[in-house]
């Protein structure tokens, strides 16, 4: 007997399928703060600058084949020359050079970086403690799969592809959310129809033995 005996849901209007069964907007899922603004391009100039900067870094290391020390030396030489010319030519351009306080890293930034590092260490420790066994297994399997993928590509290529997806897929999904959910709904209905067809033509014809009731003493 087919599991789906009726095709009446084919005539029902397609309801939009919320991907990943989400109930909140993407902005809230990403935290609703600076990270969400970057990933969803609320601040287009900052998001674009980060994407261009990462792309230039990938190009210099992967395409131009710069070495890290060589590139760092070129950057330092460029900054020193720019600051030197700025200091001596500030009267000509009527702009004062930045002071040491303008370019120093603030203590709040350092504390934020260390807080995120401590959070990562705490997460790794919690996973390795075995308190959540499924999460432990999934983490090991994910790292194993990532190690296999990494053997076919450089770390920078993987980071760039991940970064590119992170900065493009969420904003494209938010912009074309209705179209994506419509096609997802159509795909889900097509899979269900295919399963019903297979069940009625093949699966339901597989002979099954009688189910015997178990007697408990």
Essential attributes:
single chain, 217 residues, mainly alpha, 9 helices, elongated, disordered N terminus
Shape: elongated
Radius of gyration: 28 Å
Helix content: 55-70%
Global mean pLDDT: 78
Give the terminus-to-terminus CA distance.
33 Å
**Sheet/helix structural class:** mainly alpha
Number of helices: 9
Poorly predicted regions are: 1-14
For the biggest sheet, the summary is: none
- Strand coverage percent: under 5%
In N-to-C order, the SSE pattern is HHHHHHHHH
- The number of strands is 0
Verbal overview:
The protein has 217 residues and is mainly α. The chain is 67% helix and 0% strand. It is built from 9 helices and no strands. It has helices spanning 26-29, 34-39, 44-63, 68-93, 100-103, 107-128, 133-150, 155-175, 177-201. Helix 3 (44-63) packs antiparallel against helix 8. The protein is elongated.
Q: Topology of this structure?
A:
Layout: H1 26-29, H2 34-39, H3 44-63, H4 68-93, H5 100-103, H6 107-128, H7 133-150, H8 155-175, H9 177-201
Helix pairs in contact: 3-8
Summarize, please:
With 217 residues, this protein is mostly helical. 67% of the residues lie in helices and 0% in strands.
